[in-house]
Design brief:
Keywords: Fatty acid metabolism, Lipid degradation, Lipid metabolism, NAD, Oxidoreductase. The protein has about 800 residues and is of the alpha/beta class. The chain contains 33 helices and 27 strands. The protein folds into three domains: about 180 residues, Rossmann fold (3-Layer(aba) Sandwich), CATH 3.40.50; about 250 residues, N-(1-d-carboxylethyl)-l-norvaline Dehydrogenase, domain 2, CATH 1.10.1040; about 325 residues, 2-enoyl-CoA Hydratase, Chain A, domain 1, CATH 3.90.226.10.
Length: about 800
């Protein structure tokens, strides 16, 4: 039976402890958060409410966190109710040991106990506990920030009961949404050991190549399949003092002189810590923001040779220009590593050293290459782990080049590449095997709830496909519409596949899931480039046809005779949001940022989004569809006679769309109305398709019937006037531009149902016609086209 923790205690309300508590509360779990005083805990809760990016889904989750004090034995008695106690105090062994000695008498018998540490010995921390408690003790290394970073390293000791490890693994994967990797109790475990080495290698290579932090960051970010923050921006975010501690702890713990030298911090980084220039939290580190005389802000970069800040500069390397145009991340790094210029040579140097180091640690920090790869992807945001990258580049070719450069690699690894399968990963009998220490290949442990779409594609589960979308057999007679165009923009290919998918599902399948296996975002919305080009050439009939076809496709999803479940994640805006709004159910990743943001492009939602949000606002209000509603404005959803105040409900939708409000989580999306109470939120994004498929099957087994078409009551011309008045007030106050006001008036016209008396009932087709007319008229505006151009060029909205 899956483990369920009904109450958890977190010891330590510092950065990590408070954010671990917040992430537990995000999942609805009551948490006791302890520190030296309850006042410190209350301050920590206040920080949680103010931090950006926010560690909490919504502010109300903070109510689940109860303060406690280490000094108060009455508070410590509450530990007996905690089924899991996780400690996250200062990264010093004596401090952690003393705290565990203090709380040991209060621990719940049969509970699970863990320490959050980035690299201290788990066995040493547990040594102060009684034998029975040691059997239930392990390391749980969360990565910062716990809400957003997927990796959780579990580190058992030789004393840890395997059942405890299994219970924690299941809970962390299923409830906390983590990608769990089992690590050995070695210095800095897996991700920090490899990641810290890679960072140190990069710092030394910067000095060897005579480059600056800004030039290195140009090379080592997305061009190498790493996060945008690259190397030195990452160090500023993490904290240079934190990096110093990790490097020093590793250097002290390892025995090999070469490894000790690799983890020796350069003098200029020690100077940064001594001066307090530790990164973003200190206001300066490798980068520093300064205010210019004109009020603007400039970002300066550190010159390590002089310890002074200078303006940023671009690295002039032909390879960087070439790789920016390459969409595929593997092909991008392949091209970069093959380049014979400064960027290419630098990239190869740090890649070579990091791959060789990862190979040398196999067997010491983890038994197989898959554990290391997963740790680096989930903890450091690498697009591919070191051994996945090695395979993608051509394992034999990389090995040959490394040997030419004088690298010494384990003999069993060389044997496996030269005389064995020639790869780190092989497919055998429908399973993936990964190279393990000693040269044997072992099965990669799969999460049964994770659906691997690329593997399904390789297994010939494709039903139909075009350039922008693929129909895939998910099994159990459920079909997946997997769309995969650039940024998953909604365009003709997607719409064509919706039409095919609905016809196919209605004839042969139990239901349809709509999602994408491409990360990190579900959809940025409609293909603005197509709309802008058509507008600039005056092809209004073509734009009308595009919008009309998208509207029809969404209606086909809504009224299909088989259930349709949409599974969004990440950024889900504009047309992507409209797709989700038309599903029978939404199964959303917890980290789903959903909204109708079309005003930023100078238009209003045109694919049925305005209409659907209006319907959602009123669908659960009693008597709305029977005519027993009022039209008078008021602060609540009912007037003095108890009748439903339709105007208030419509005003909320107007504000939501006019301000381009986007949820900061799926939990907030439910509060805003983008998700219904019947929709599902999934903590682990790897489980999204599994849960969406389950939702389809449940709807089918319940005897699915499509929704009934209804006529919709609207607030009419007087309601429109009230919405326009609110927009005019914002304009007068300087919060909305003239063009914002024009867009808001168009939106109000649609939401009010056009020029009709209050209380008129209209159908969906009528509202869709209003939407499309408003959309087309706005697309013809020069200021709208300017917004579209700016959005396409910069990715940011233009206020004009």
């Amino acid at each position: 039976m899956p483990v369920v923790f009904r109450r958890v205690a977190v010891l330590g309300a510092g950065t990590m402890g408070s954010q671990i508590a917040a992430h537990l509360a995000n999942q609805g779990i009551p948490v006791d958060l302890f520190d030296l005083s309850t006042e410190l805990v209350e301050k920590a809760k206040q920080r949680l409410a103010e931090l950006k990016p926010s560690p909490i889904y919504t502010r109300d989750v903070l109510d689940l966190i109860a303060p406690g004090s280490f000094q108060d034995e009455g508070d410590l008695e509450r530990l007996r109710d905690a089924e899991w106690v996780v400690e996250a105090v200062l990264e010093q062994l004596p401090v952690k040991q003393q705290l565990w000695q203090r709380v040991a008498p209060f621990l719940r018998p049969g509970g699970i106990y863990s320490t959050n540490t980035s690299g201290l010995s788990i066995r040493a921390i547990a040594s102060v506990l009684p034998e029975e408690a040691r059997r239930r003790f392990l390391g749980t290394h969360f990565f910062n920030p716990p809400r957003y970073l997927h990796l959780l390293e579990l580190i058992p000791t030789p004393d840890t009961d395997p059942a405890v490890v299994g219970a924690m693994r299941d809970f962390a994967t299923r409830v906390l949404g983590k990608g769990v990797v089992l690590a050995k109790d070695t210095p800095n475990f897996i991700a920090n050991r490899i990641g810290c080495y890679g960072l140190m290698v990069t710092v030394r290579a910067m000095q060897e190549f005579g480059l600056g932090p800004d030039e290195v960051d140009e090379i080592t970010g997305e061009n190498m399949g790493r996060p945008k923050s690259a190397t030195f921006r990452t160090l500023d975010v993490v904290g240079i003092d934190v990096m110093k501690d990790v490097a020093d702890n590793t250097r002290a713990a390892v025995q090999d002189p070469d490894e000790q030298a690799a983890f020796t911090l350069p003098d200029f980084m020690r100077q940064l810590v001594e001066r307090g220039w530790t990164g973003e939290k200190a206001g300066q580190g490798f980068y520093k923001r300064v205010k210019q005389p004109d009020g603007s802000r400039e970002i300066l970069v550190l010159d390590p040779a002089t310890m002074e800040y200078r303006p940023r500069r671009r690295l002039q390397a032909p390879s960087l220009q070439a790789v920016r145009a390459i969409e595929d991340p593997v092909q991008r790094i392949k091209t970069l590593l093959a380049a014979d210029d400064t960027a290419g040579r630098f990239a190869w140097e740090i890649t070579r050293r990091t791959l060789a180091y990862a190979a040398s640690k196999l067997g010491e920090i983890a038994d197989d290459v898959a554990s290391i790869d997963r740790a680096m992807k989930w903890g450091f945001g690498w697009n591919a782990g070191p051994f996945e990258l090695w395979d993608a580049l051509g394992a034999a070719a990389v090995l040959e080049r490394m040997e030419r450069d004088g690298e010494t690699l384990p003999g069993w690894l060389v044997e496996a590449i030269k005389n064995g399968p020639g790869r780190f990963y092989v497919e055998e009998g429908g399973r993936t095997l990964a190279l393990a220490a000693g040269g044997r290949y072992i099965p990669v442990e799969d999460d049964p709830r994770a659906v691997d779409v690329p593997r399904l594609l390789k297994q010939n589960k494709v039903v139909d496909r075009n350039a922008g979308a693929t129909l895939v057999d998910l099994g159990d007679d459920v079909l997946l519409l997997d769309f995969h165009g650039p940024k998953q923009a909604i365009g003709p290919d997607y719409i064509q596949m919706v039409e095919k998918a609905v016809a196919e599902v209605e004839a042969n399948w139990r239901g349809l899931v709509i999602s994408s296996h491409v990360k990190p975002n579900f959809s940025v919305g409609a293909n603005l480039m197509l709309i802008l080009l058509a507008a600039q050439t005056g092809e209004w009939d073509e734009i009308d046809a595009m919008v009309r076809r998208f509207q029809r496709a969404n209606l086909r999803l809504k009224y299909a005779t088989r259930p349709v479940v949409v599974a969004p994640y990440g950024i889900t805006v504009g047309g992507g949001c409209e797709v989700a709004l038309h599903g029978d159910r939404v199964v959303a990743a917890a980290e789903t940022y959903i909204g109708l943001v079309e005003v930023g492009a100078g238009v209003i939602p045109g694919g049925g989004g305005t209409k659907e949000m209006l319907l959602r606002a009123i669908e659960n209000v009693p008597d709305v569809f029977s005519g027993k509603y009022g039209q008078t404005p008021g602060p609540a959803t009912t007037d003095l006679t108890g009748r439903v105040n339709l105007q208030v409900l419509v005003n909320r939708v107007f504000e939501l769309i006019a301000t381009a409000r986007v949820s900061t989580s799926a939990a907030e999306a439910r509060q805003l109305g983008f998700l219904r109470a019947t929709d599902t939120v999934v903590a682990n994004p790897e489980h999204l398709l599994h849960e969406a498929k389950r939702a389809v099957l449940a709807l089918d087994e319940a005897g699915y019937r499509p929704p009934v078409r209804r006529r919709i009551p609207v607030v009419g011309d007087s309601g429109r006037a009230l919405m326009e008045l609110a927009a005019v007030s914002l304009h007068w106050g300087g919060w909305a531009s003239e063009h914002d006001l024009k867009i808001a008036r168009k939106l109000a016209h649609v939401l009010a149902g056009g020029d009709v008396p209050p209380g008129t009932e209209v159908d969906e087709e009528y509202l869709l016609d209003l939407e499309r007319e408003a959309f087309l008229s706005l697309v013809g505006e020069p200021k709208t086209q300017a917004r579209m151009q700016h959005l396409l060029k910069t990715g940011k909205p233009l206020r004009n």
